Each structure stands twice: as structure tokens, then as C-alpha cells.
Amino acid sequence: MVSLWLIGIMVGAIAFGYLADRFGRKRLFLLTPAMHALFAILTAFS
Predict the structure, then answer these.
(1) Whole-angstrom Cα distance, residue 1 to residue 9?
(2) Which residues are within 8 A (CB) of 19 and not within 5 positions of it... i.e. 6 or more apart?
(3) pTM for this entry
(4) Residue 12: which pLDDT band, with cuts at 50, 70 and 90?
(5) Which stretches within 1-46 are classed as H helix?
(6) What three-state secondary structure class fits 35?
(7) Cα dihedral sign for 20, 23, 24, 27?
(8) How far apart (Å, rounded) are the C-alpha atoms in residues 36 and 4?
(9) Can you tell me the distance from the alpha carbon of 5 to that of 37, in angstroms, rounded to the nearest whole number?
(10) Considering only CA atoms, which of 3, 32, 38, 31 is closest in space to residue 46?
């Protein structure tokens, strides 16, 4: 599980770094807490 978590962090950092350069950092900084909230709610329902 920890290995998957670390791989997810690595893939997310690469992907969000590219997207931040392409679409702007402010949008991605606003998207990140929204995604966190969405997945926290989905986790509560699981």
C-alpha cells in the first residue's frame, strides 16, 4: 500500500506539474482542494 501511495505521489507530481505549466498554477491550486473534498466525500460513502 505504501508503495502504491508513493507511486501515486510521483505520478501526481509529474502530471500536475505539467498541467500547472499548461493551464496556470492558480487554477490547479483551486482544483486540488476541490478534488480532495470530492474524494473525501466519496471515501465517507464507501
Answers:
(1) 12
(2) 28
(3) 0.57
(4) confident
(5) 2-23, 25-45
(6) helix
(7) negative
(8) 18
(9) 18
(10) 38
